Amino acid sequence: MIATTTAGKLVERSLEVIQDGQASSGAFLASPTFEQYRFSWFRDGAFVAEAVDLHGRLDSSARFHAWAARIIAGAAEGMTRAIATALAGDEPDPGDYLDCRYAAGGGSGAGVGLHDEGWPTFQLDGPAIWLWSLVHHLRHGGTLTADIREVVPLTARYLAALWQTPCFDAWEEFGDRVHTSTVAAIAAGLEAAVVLEPTLARDRSLRAARSDIAARLTHGAGPYTKWEGSDEVDASLLWMVAPYGLLAPDDVRFAATLDAIESGLIRDGHGVHRYASDTFYGGGAWPVLTAAHGRTLLRRGAVGDRQRAAASLAWIESTADEDGLLPEQVADHALAPDRVAAWNDEWGPCAQPLLWSHAAYLCLRAELATGHEDGTSTVPAVPR
């Protein structure tokens, strides 16, 4: 552990990294110094917004939410066509899907979609997590502009129409599957949409999607897996409890999932890997997942869980470099060490800093400090 991680200095450094990584448009750049990640994702940005909300930086999260709303408003025509096509039982034109990553754009805000660059762009979890993060923003004292509220119904209907469509997952992999973690994110997003706009509770397509998703997530036995038919557990499934709150920590299937994650994806004491066959940069341990594990333990509250969560925090702190920058992942105890060099040759060293890593650290630290599962002493109702 380096000096900058002591006495809360990594908190200050993390907030500074996030501030420096926010473009004038409001977009959070995933990793400003890593060529492949000098863009903004709905998913990463929403999780970063969660963290800055917990630390009172409401203006920062508000600017991100305004940017995201402008992106969706600019894509509304294609999204509307995709909804109509999907509801008619046909496959939408890929060009109508909402992109996943965007250039930051100038001061005017709306970034440039990167649909034509060959990146795995069709990802449904991002806009869903964004809807969830809007409710989080309100519950921590933020407000939503009319422009933001205006795109909530469109975003919700888009997710409701497409949730069964195969897409890339949170790791931008396996685009031919319907991923459990993505379905969970959509469930959280649709519940948030109804909170934000109660009239959506009467929307026929949303009612059907919410019911079908609930049935899918409660059907079956044993641990949740990456997708139906897979025999692999994925640590992104931790988000079903922390932070989404979709399931109780003692839910039978989730408890089995947590057991599988702890027995198969924690190899070096506290760092959590993505999934057992991961080869990206050798399949290292990720601070974002280690933080999610710690937050899950805090929600469960069994004997020793708080101490284990604190150990997870300490492990994350130990991954910071001399400048207090947290990486995307750590290659120590990599699952596929023979693949580390190949990725270094192709893309260079792993992303560092990753804003999402700093955000995840801030969230876990806040929850440990307050003793509350959302990093605050109380969580007020959502203002109307």
Structural write-up:
The protein contains 13 helices and 4 strands. Strands 1-2 form a two-stranded antiparallel sheet. It has helices at residues 9-20, 42-54, 58-74, 76-87, 125-139, 146-162, 180-196, 204-218, 252-264, 287-300, 305-318, 340-347, 355-370, and strands at 40-41, 101-102, 272-273, 285-286. It is 48% helix and 2% strand. With 384 residues, it is mainly α. It has a single domain (3-370), classed as Alpha/alpha barrel (Glycosyltransferase).
Look at the structure and give the mean pLDDT: 92
CATH topology (fold) name: Glycosyltransferase
Tally of DSSP helical segments: 13
Flag low-confidence runs: 1-5, 106-110, 376-384
Q: Please summarize the sheet with the most strands.
A: 2 strands, antiparallel
Rg, rounded, reads 19 Å
Our measurement of the CA-to-CA distance between the termini, rounded to an integer number of angstroms, reads 44 Å
Indicate how many domains the architecture comprises: 1
| CATH second-level architecture | Alpha/alpha barrel
CATH class: Mainly Alpha
> Which series of helices and strands comes N to C?
HEHHHEHHHHHEEHHHH
Strand % is under 5%
Work out the number of β strands. 4
Structural class: mainly alpha
Widest sheet: strand ordering: 1-2
What is the helix fraction of residues, given as a range? 40-55%
Q: Assign an overall shape.
A: globular
